[in-house]
Amino acid sequence: MFKSLKSITFGIVAAALMAGVAHADVTVYTAGPQSLIDKLSAGFTKQTGVKVNVFQATTGKVMARIEAEAANPVVDVVISASWDTANDFAKRGWLVNYSSPNAAQVPEFLKSEGAVAQGISALGIVWNTKSGTPKPAEWADLTKPEYKDLVNIPDPAQSGSSFELTAALAGQDDWKLFKSLQANGAIIAGANADALNPVLQGAKAVVFGAVDYIALAAQKKGENIEVVFPKSGTVIAPRPAMIMNWSKNQDDAKKFIDYMLSEEGQKLVADEMLMPSRTDVAASRPLIGDLTLLKYDTAAVYGKRKETLKAFADLYGAK
């Protein structure tokens, strides 16, 4: 009987330990929409039984939290709003090299050894259709008198995608466009949401360089706005998802990446008005092939980040 009880006890303990391993939480830090990570987490947990702990914030705040936890890191998966984060993490040796079987339909330029795009956003002009101003078609249109004092620009120091657009456009004409915008009363309005909200409310007419999916989602809900992608070119912002090499739960972290890139996961991405990274998943929005992309050297742009931000701050009087 003692032997039997011992066997039963051992079996119960072993089962409990196995259950603990199988259901260890995955911790995800994301700069993506809260609604998207909530839906991805719920779908992943339903499919695998693994719970997801989430910290959602801007890329800057996500980075600050990772740095603050350097002595005792807890994050398993990081999803950034800028591919530069993936390049930075790779240089630091922080990433787990992983190629998900669900990444087969993701174009090569949207993945690397240690990162894969969750989805893609692009930058455009967001115009309030009730503003009484003509519909703009090009970036330079916003320097015209009709838009005097009615243009918001997201701060490139707070938005990685805004920084890339600023650097790419400034590099084309030695800041002439931004000087004209400043002379026409354009203002720096904080991060992306801070720039968009006054346009939604009618206090301003246009956002120069808005993150498209936020505006497209608002338009879908009935807001009086349109998103314009200038034919002269814009930039896209692939949002890299990465497994950190200090993760103690890499198997489940890989399963999270697999789910994110599954057809179900990518449909959730598309539902948020982001471009899905998989080319075989449909979306009711313009895709990369519908856009003209500006040509610039990403490494060179980020190599001069401090100089570019200083030139921008000097022009607009930012502190």
Task: Describe the protein.
With 319 residues, the protein is α/β, with parallel strands linked by helices. The protein has helices spanning 2-22, 34-48, 59-68, 83-92, 160-173, 176-183, 192-201, 212-220, 250-261, 263-271, 298-303, 305-316, and strands spanning 26-30, 52-56, 77-79, 116-128, 151-153, 187-188, 206-211, 225-228, 236-243, 275-276. Strands 1, 2, 3, 4, 5, 6, 7, 8, 9 and 10 form a ten-stranded mixed β-sheet that branches. The termini are far apart. Mean pLDDT is 91; it is low at 1-22.
End-to-end C-alpha gap: 78 Å
Note the beta-strand portion.
Answer: 15-25%
List segments where confidence is low: pLDDT < 50 over at least 5 consecutive residues: 1-22
Following the backbone from N to C, one meets helices and strands in this order, namely HEHEHEHEEHHEHEHEEHHEHH
Helix content: 40-55%
Radius of gyration: 22 Å
Outline: globular
Major sheet description: 10 strands, mixed
Instruction: Tell how many strands the DSSP assignment holds.
Output: 10
Helix/strand-derived class? Answer: alpha/beta
User: What's the overall average pLDDT, rounded?
Assistant: 91
Number of helical segments with 4 or more residues? 12
Q: Keywords, please?
A:
single chain, alpha/beta, 10-stranded mixed β-sheet, disordered N terminus
